[in-house]
């Protein structure tokens, strides 16, 4: 039985900062961002947006199609948790009117946890083929101002419906894993921004790719040349380009540098306009590939490298299904990005510094989001989400 992604939809904030604006303020050459790290814009969440509202916006078109009774389990992957106990998914469950017999849980391992959620969802569906699992990954990437990480901020959420006989991608059960206790990127509970050893993190990413790939090829009959395209975790698009060159070299690949570049180029386009969305980024990369590539991908093998700092990594394969375009939301994604509003540097700073109540004071939050759900208030330590 084939199990995998039946439908996929993403959401990001309606506000973005062009990295030329950031470069100008920092008196940096904008080409360092546009070419050096391969990023153009970064999404900035509005004060009344967070991982819950973005997640509900991403999942809404799926629930509108399948109905609120159809999903048995909601797995919510994030590293921008809003509560140490309650799953962000429980708020989404109410906002989307999902039924009370649906189980909900949150998963964490940096950017990797969406892939853990996907694999667990596939296992649940394999056990009960009539069940459907909603996997949501939602994150807001935040670094300190004036640090090398600042230009790689971003925000986004992706929702994927996992079912048997999926319309988009059949996920292979063969996976290559790699885990190592390293401190390349982390965020202690008392901080709202991540700490990162940037250069070290890029080295660990490449090492994890090599190790996960070696494990994958030991358990799977698929080899490098069996894959047409590759989706990488996308902290910034240049990282994926470096990773893919690294993998091609490890495999003594006979393709030209241009052909190697073509195997990932379309996966990078949304990320270049959104920035890092941590758990969501690899699957927004999949949306980018499927929404942009004009050629029919049916039957093609896609390689996925999922990386989460700390670190856990996984290489796995998926085969594109005939008629996969029926499970996409290409027009919606294009409109979402086309309708975004550019912000200036002062507006960026005020969004960045928007006060997050720490001591339990009650606050009303003005409506700013263009999305369908918003965080309206925090009262007596309780977050109040409403439809717009
Ligand atoms: P940096 O150290 O300021 O940048 O920040 P740099 O000096 O290394 O320059 C970057 C590139 O731009 C270099 O190219 C320069 O040569 C080039 P490279 O040598 O790498 O090929 N450059 C220029 N190019 C054209 N014109 C110019 C110019 N100037 C320079 N004028 C760094 C880079 C990655 C350290 C920083 O962005 C950072 O700290 N980012 C955050 C950490 C990160 O994203 N790490 C990635 C791996 S870890 C990961 O993916 C997990 C993560 O998503 C979290 C999770 O799992 O939860 C982060």
Automatic annotation (TrEMBL):
Its EC number is 2.3.3.10. It comes from the Bacteria. Coiled coil: none annotated. It is an enzyme of class 2 (transferase). GO terms for biological process: acetyl-CoA metabolic process. The keyword Nuclease does not apply. Residues 2-164 form the Hydroxymethylglutaryl-coenzyme A synthase N-terminal domain. InterPro entries: HMG_CoA_synt_C_dom, HMG_CoA_synth_N, HMG_CoA_synthase_prok, Thiolase-like. GO terms for molecular function: hydroxymethylglutaryl-CoA synthase activity. Keywords: Acyltransferase, Transferase. (3S)-3-hydroxy-3-methylglutaryl-CoA binds at residues 29, 143, 242, 276. Residues 176-247, 254-324 form the Hydroxymethylglutaryl-coenzyme A synthase C-terminal domain. The active site is at 79 (proton donor/acceptor), 111 (acyl-thioester intermediate), 233 (proton donor/acceptor). It holds the Pfam family HMG_CoA_synt_N. Belongs to the thiolase-like superfamily. HMG-CoA synthase family. PANTHER family: 3-HYDROXY-3-METHYLGLUTARYL COENZYME A SYNTHASE (PTHR43323), HYDROXYMETHYLGLUTARYL-COA SYNTHASE (PTHR43323:SF2). This is Hydroxymethylglutaryl-CoA synthase. It comes from Nitrincola lacisaponensis. The lineage of its organism: Bacteria, Pseudomonadati, Pseudomonadota, Gammaproteobacteria, Oceanospirillales.
């Amino acid at each position: 039985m084939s199990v995998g992604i039946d439908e996929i939809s993403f959401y990001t904030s309606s506000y973005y900062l062009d990295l030329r604006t950031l470069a100008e303020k920092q008196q940096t050459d904008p080409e360092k961002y546009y070419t050096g790290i391969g990023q153009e814009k970064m999404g900035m969440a509005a004060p009344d947006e967070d991982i819950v509202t973005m997640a509900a916006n991403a999942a809404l078109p799926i629930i509108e199609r399948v109905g609120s009774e159809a999903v048995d389990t909601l797995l919510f992957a994030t590293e921008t948790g809003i509560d140490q106990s309650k799953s962000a998914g429980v708020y989404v469950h109410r906002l989307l009117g999902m039924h009370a017999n649906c189980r909900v849980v949150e998963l964490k391992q940096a950017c990797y946890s969406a892939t853990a959620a996907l694999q667990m969802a596939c296992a649940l569906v394999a056990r009960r083929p009539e069940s459907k699992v909603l996997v949501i990954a939602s994150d807001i990437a935040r670094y300190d101002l004036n640090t090398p990480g600042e230009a790689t901020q971003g925000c986004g959420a992706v929702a994927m419906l996992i079912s048997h006989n999926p319309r988009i991608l059949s996920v292979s059960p063969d996976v290559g894993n790699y885990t190592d206790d390293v401190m390349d990127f982390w965020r202690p509970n008392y901080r709202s921004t991540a700490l990162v050893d940037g250069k070290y993190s890029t080295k660990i990413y490449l090492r994890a790719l090599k190790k996960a790939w070696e494990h994958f090829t030991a358990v799977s009959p698929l080899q490098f040349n069996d894959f047409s395209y590759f989706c990488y975790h996308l902290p910034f698009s240049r990282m994926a380009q470096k990773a893919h060159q690294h993998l091609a070299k490890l495999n003594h690949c006979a393709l030209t540098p241009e052909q190697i570049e073509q195997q990932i180029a379309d996966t990078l386009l949304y990320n270049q306009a959104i920035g890092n969305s941590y758990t969501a980024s690899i699957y927004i990369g999949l949306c980018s590939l499927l929404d942009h590539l004009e050629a029919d991908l049916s039957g093609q093998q896609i390689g996925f490298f999922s990386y989460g700092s700390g670190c856990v990594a996984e290489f796995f394969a998926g085969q594109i299904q005939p008629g996969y375009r029926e499970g996409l939301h290409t027009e919606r994604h294009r409109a979402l990005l086309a309708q975004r509003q550019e912000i200036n540097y002062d507006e960026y700073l005020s969004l960045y510094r928007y006060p997050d109540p720490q001591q339990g004071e009650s606050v009303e939050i003005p409506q700013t989001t263009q999305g369908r759900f918003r965080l309206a208030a925090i009262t007596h330590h309780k977050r109040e989400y409403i439809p717009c």
